[in-house]
Design brief:
alpha/beta; Rossmann fold; 7-stranded mixed β-sheet; two-stranded antiparallel sheet; 9 strands; binds S-adenosylmethionine
């Protein structure tokens, strides 16, 4: 978005994200206050019997305060993370003119859960299920004795907080993560560039999940991060880009490998993702994917969304031009799951490896 109006719109959105981050504490406490008011309105007997519940609400407030403490640290660096594009902005626009984002609180809460998944030892089991098969496939395809891994370019679109891309780069590859969610980008910048010590911070990833808890302690399960020291950067070349995958990556035949994890279902039209992945891969390049088909736009009103089954997708993948080298279903995977919750979601994900043929036969 290079027009003046576009830049203004981007900046306004950035300021809304910052303001939403800042509102996390008050908005979260407000929810607890409404539960407290609800208890106050109950008959006296109920109030007495719910004393422990009231005490639990006080504990949850402490957790929210602790989560909130992390936010100013992150925001301090947000203005300068995009090469100073936003550094003078706070002067331009008054804070009370900046709107909060409607779904912003959910986005901040998701970032806390993603911190658990990507950067805590509590998330190690999920990362083993989701990231390891992808990493193993990459390693098997580019053995160190045959390839100079520093010359192998791997792209991870929908990188979240960057752990998969970081792990790939740690194995010597030139790896780039791409992400369009500013909440994720701001926090990943902090973790990847500014966290100094292992397990430096403690957060409550599931403090906002009020249902399916055996005890309040389960809701208050903590995660420490980062479980490894992201600085200095891995021996390979590692970078993150901001923006929509479809808009940022327009150069054909550029990447040796594209690795997608819990990503392809994030498109309103998954076929567009598949086509773009095909186009940007070099001939002979690999696409490795793991994840479910939880089509993100499926239930959104006013969104055009298609939700092809995996069988239909396999046909599309071949028609786009890929050769499918491996494909398995039923890969048990979890996503930001509280291990203590009464509700356990587990996906039977698909895992596949596709290759863009070296000799591309063009349709006449
Ligand atoms: C379900 S999350 C998966 C994150 C990470 N790969 C993982 O497995 O934990 C999908 C991510 O893709 C990002 N995303 C969705 N559509 C995107 C797009 N068009 N361009 C860049 N990122 C996108 C979302 O913001 C989100 O962080």
């Amino acid at each position: 978005m290079n027009t003046e109006a576009g830049v203004r719109e981007e900046r306004a959105y950035f300021l809304s994200v910052i303001k939403t981050f800042k509102s996390y504490r008050d908005q979260s406490l407000k929810k607890i206050h409404s539960k407290e008011r609800c208890v106050v309105s109950l008959p006296n007997d109920h109030k007495t019997w719910l004393e422990k519940y009231n005490a639990d609400l006080q504990k949850l407030k402490e957790g929210i305060e602790k989560n909130s403490n992390f936010i100013p640290l992150v925001l301090e660096h947000a203005y300068t993370m995009f090469d100073n594009v936003y550094s003078n902005m706070d002067i331009i626009q008054k804070d009370d003119e900046v709107p909060l984002l409607a779904d912003g609180l959910d986005k901040v809460q998701s970032v806390f859960k993603q911190l658990m998944r990507d950067w805590s030892s509590l998330g190690a089991a999920e990362r083993k299920q989701c990231y390891e098969p992808i990493i193993e496939e990459i390693i098997a395809n580019y053995p160190e004795d045959k390839f100079d891994r520093s010359q192998i370019q791997i792209l991870v679109p929908g990188a979240g907080l960057g752990r998969l891309a970081f792990e790939i780069a740690s194995r010597g590859f030139k790896c780039q993560g791409n992400e369009f969610n500013l909440f994720m980008l701001i926090v990943s910048f902090y973790v990847l560039n500014l966290c100094q010590n292992v397990d430096e911070y403690e957060i409550y990833p599931w403090i906002h999940q009020y249902c399916n808890n055996i005890s309040v302690e389960d809701q208050m399960l903590t995660a420490r991060f980062p479980d490894v020291k992201p600085m200095p950067s891995p021996k390979g070349n590692f970078s993150m880009t901001a923006g929509d995958f479809l808009e940022v990556y327009t150069n054909n035949d550029e990447w040796h490998c594209v690795a997608t994890c819990f990503f392809i279902d994030c498109a309103p039209n998954v076929v567009q993702f598949i086509e773009t992945i095909y186009d940007i891969l070099k001939p002979g390049g690999l696409w490795i994917n793991l994840g479910p088909l939880l089509y993100h736009y499926s239930d959104m009103r006013n969104e055009k969304s298609i939700e092809p089954s995996f069988k239909v997708l396999c046909d599309v993948i071949k028609k786009v031009g890929f050769e499918m080298e491996k494909c398995s279903t039923g890969i048990k995977t979890k996503y930001c799951q509280n291990p203590l919750s009464m509700l356990q979601y587990e996906y039977d994900s698909v895992f596949f490896v596709c290759r863009k043929p070296v000799d591309i036969i063009m349709d006449s």
